[in-house]
Amino acid sequence: RMLRVWRPNTLTRQQLEERRRYGKELLEAGHSTAEITQALGIPASTLRNWRQKLRLHGQDALRATVGGGRPARLNEAQRHHLRELLHQGATAHGYDDDTWTILRVREVIGQTFAVWYHRDHVGDLLKRMGFSYQKSETRALERDKKRIRTWMDTTLPGLGEKDRAGQDRGVRG
Question: Which of 11, 12, 55, 141 has a CA-to-CA distance to 166 between 20 and 30 Å?
Fold first, then answer.
């Protein structure tokens, strides 16, 4: 009989547990090591480790592990509220323009939730929340495209090589 193939690119902790439990089912059904490793996309050494853990610790050895690291300082509801605050725009929070900077977001988080992140971490938090870095437009609002085109057509061709490229390429005497 054909075995179900298990090969996503990345697996969550819950999916890893599900894969281990499926591997246990295949072991109990009498499938060979080669068949199981082929179906699950794992090396034989991993299957040997699973067998040993099952013998020593039983069914609990297959459970998903708990993520390490420090707990999140903002819970899901607070992150949702932060998203709403950011969508209101920076001017709604007393800033002169609607540009959100890392330091402004940090200040809003601190004042709203009494949680003060380091400025380097705020960008990571925003990225995990689905926001992306946006570089602001640096061109002047008064920019006149017609005048720029006229200058490029009339003045630019008359400039010497040194003026255009920043170095002297002319004939030396």
Answer: 141
